[in-house]
Design goal:
three-stranded antiparallel beta sheet; about 240 residues; Rossmann fold; single chain; alpha/beta
Length: about 240
């Protein structure tokens, strides 16, 4: 596992985009696992800039997003479908049929989750998985618990996650209480995992992930057992690590 610390969120985004670009240049038909939230936005902006400069071609790439809220239509402004369209997909040349996001409106969420895992396997598996980290150490929407969940699944969002995400909604009451998320097993099957964390509010989660016990109470800690995981942090997110 590698850990790199940068001055600020902009540099973290540039570094993450450089690694994703290297993956696409090395393998133009890469399968990318993508994340939503505030942390990846600088990464997506840097990727868009590279595409607009003629450096990156997404036309042969395939993407699978980590998660989606249960009950939000794809055209809902707070859905992760809408987020990805705004922040990446509408601004690069990825094919619409190559974009995959969990179906939070499926009548049978269990069957839809199994089908999502099957689609990833059918695509050859994820080459590079981009992750953020929640204040409570979650990755995807895998919340703290007694065990790690293997496959894609429906998850009840913790109060901490609801509080963190309410800024995107009109009120806390509007935040969905459930989401569909790739499981820890699905994430760990990616050939390379890239986690970005920025801001002092992520410092404790980063410390637990990198220096605490490997425990489902801090789900990101499992990444220490991945054969090719890279943490990209700004100085604020790294501020509680030993030796800093």
């Amino acid at each position: 596992m590698q850990t790199h610390v940068f001055l600020n969120a902009h540099q973290v985004g540039q570094a993450a985009a450089t690694l994703i670009a290297a993956q696409l240049l090395r393998k133009p038909d890469s399968v990318l696992g993508l994340a939503t939230g505030s942390s990846p936005i600088p990464t997506y902006e840097a990727l868009i800039a590279m595409h607009e400069a003629g450096v990156l071609d997404f036309s042969r790439a395939t993407s699978f997003n980590l998660d989606e809220y249960v009950g939000l239509a794809p055209d809902h402004p707070c859905s992760y479908h809408a987020f990805m369209q705004e922040h990446l997909f509408s601004r690069v040349n990825i094919r619409p049929q190559s974009v995959h996001i969990p179906d939070g409106e499926a009548a049978d969420l269990y069957a839809a989750a199994r089908a999502y895992d099957d689609a990833i396997l059918a695509a050859g598996g994820i080459d590079l998985q981009l992750l953020g980290i929640g204040h409570n150490g979650h990755i995807g929407f895998n919340e703290p618990g007694e065990h790690f969940v293997y496959g894609c699944h429906r998850v009840a969002l913790s109060q901490s996650t609801i509080q963190a995400n309410k800024r995107f909604f009109a009120s806390e009451a509007d935040v969905p209480r459930y989401a569909v998320s790739l499981g820890i097993g699905s994430i760990m099957q990616a050939r390379q995992v890239l986690l970005i964390a920025t801001g002092e509010d992520k410092a404790e989660a980063v410390r637990q992930a990198l220096e605490g016990d490997v425990s489902p109470l801090w789900q990101a800690s499992i990444l220490r057992t991945h054969p090719d995981a890279i943490f990209l942090l700004d100085e604020a997110a790294a501020s509680r690590l030993s030796g800093r």
